[in-house]
Amino acid sequence: MTLFDLTGKVALVTGSTKGIGKAIAERLAEHGARVVVSSRKPDACEQVAAGINEARRASVAVPIACNINYKEQLRALVDETHKRLGPIDILICNAALNPAYGSMSQIADDAFDKILGANIRSNHWLAQLVLPDMIARRDGAIIIVSSIGGYRGSTTIGTYCISKAADLQLARNLAVENGPHNVRVNCIAPGLVKTDFARALWDTEEGERRASSGTPLRRLGEPDDIAGAAVFLASRAGAWMTGQSIIVDGGALA
After folding, report:
1. Rounded CA separation 18/41 (Å)
2. Secondary structure (3-state) at 140
3. Which residues, in sequence order, are CB contacts of 29 under 8 Å at separation 6+?
4. Residue 120's domain spans which residues?
5. Residue 214 is assigned to a structural domain of this protein
6. What is the pLDDT along the chain (254 residues), one digit of tens a residue?
7. Is the pTM of this model over 0.85?
8. Which H or E run contains 63?
9. Residue 160 falls in the annotated catalytic set
10. Which helix or strand (DSSP H or E) is residue 132 part of?
11. Do β-strands 61-63 and 140-145 pair in parallel, antiparallel, or remain unpaired?
12. CA-CA distance, 100 to 158, in Å (whole number)?
C-alpha cells in the first residue's frame, strides 16, 4: 500500500464529465478508487464512465446524472451511489457555474442568486448528505474545488469570486466541526485552467498569451495539474491536512 493508494474507496465527483472534474475522476480511478461520474447530462456521464472502465479494464466507474441546483436530485445522487457502490469515502465538489461576466453593479439578481446557489449552497447540501457515511466509519475526505478568484477581487467575475471565497470558509467550518470524527475537508484553488468552463478567458492566441504572461511558469493550467492535488488530498498522503486550500496556479498569486 502506497501513500496514494485509494483501493476500496468510493469517490463521488460532481461536474466530472469534462475539464477538471473528468481529470480528477480518471486519476482517482487510476489510484484504485471506484468513482461516480456525475453531471447534468446522462449521456455525457455514461460516455466518461465507459472511458474510465475501458482504461482500467474493470467496472470501476458508474454514471449518475444530477443537477446540483436541486436538493432532491443531490439526495437521489447519494442514494443511488449507496445502492451501486456503497458508503461514500471521498466527495469532490467540483461542479460550478458562472453565467455572468462584467461589473457587479450590473449583474441581475437571478444571476447573482444562481451563482451563489450552485457554487456554495449545493456544496453545503452535498456535504450534509455524505457526512453521515464518513462519521460512521471515522474516515472521509471532502474536497471543494474553489479558485484563486476567492483570494482577489475582479472587475469581470466578481460574484463568482465571492462564491469561491465562501467555499474556502465552508471548508474551514466543516473541517473544524468534523475533524474529531477523522473527516478531512480541504479546498483546491486553481488558477486559470484550459477548460471549456473558462474558455472565454483564454480562447484566443492573444488571450492565452496575456493570461499566461502573469504566471511564473508562463503557461495556463491543464486539468491534470489539478487532479494530482485531488489525489493527494483524498489519500493517506494528505491524512494530516484539513481546513486548508492548496493553490495550484502556476505561481500567479506569487
Report:
1. 11
2. strand
3. 35, 52, 55, 56, 60, 61
4. 10-193+226-247
5. no
6. 799 999 999 999 999 999 999 999 999 999 999 999 999 999 999 999 999 999 999 999 999 999 999 999 999 999 999 999 999 999 999 999 998 889 999 999 999 999 999 999 999 999 999 999 999 999 999 999 999 999 999 999 999 999 999 999 999 999 999 999 999 999 999 999 987 766 666 566 666 677 777 899 988 899 999 999 999 999 999 999 999 999 999 999 99
7. yes
8. strand 61-63
9. yes
10. helix 122-137
11. unpaired
12. 9
What total of structural domains would you count in the chain? 1
In this structure, is residue 212 part of a structural domain?
no
Q: In degrees rounded to 5, what are phi and psi of residue 2?
A: -100, 170
Q: Where are the alpha helices (DSSP H) in the chain?
A: 19-30, 42-56, 71-84, 109-116, 122-137, 158-178, 205-212, 223-234
Q: Which of 70, 101, 151, 160 is catalytic?
A: 160
- On whether residue 131 sits in a domain, the answer given is yes
C-alpha cell at 234: 483524498
Supply 51's cell numbers: 472511458
Report the half-sphere exposure of 230 (CA within 13 A, side-chain side): 33
CATH of the domain at 64: 3.40.50.720
Strands of the sheet containing 183-190, edge to edge, are: 61-63, 34-38, 10-14, 90-93, 140-145, 183-190, 245-248
DSSP assigned state of 221: B
Assigned domain for 63 exists: yes
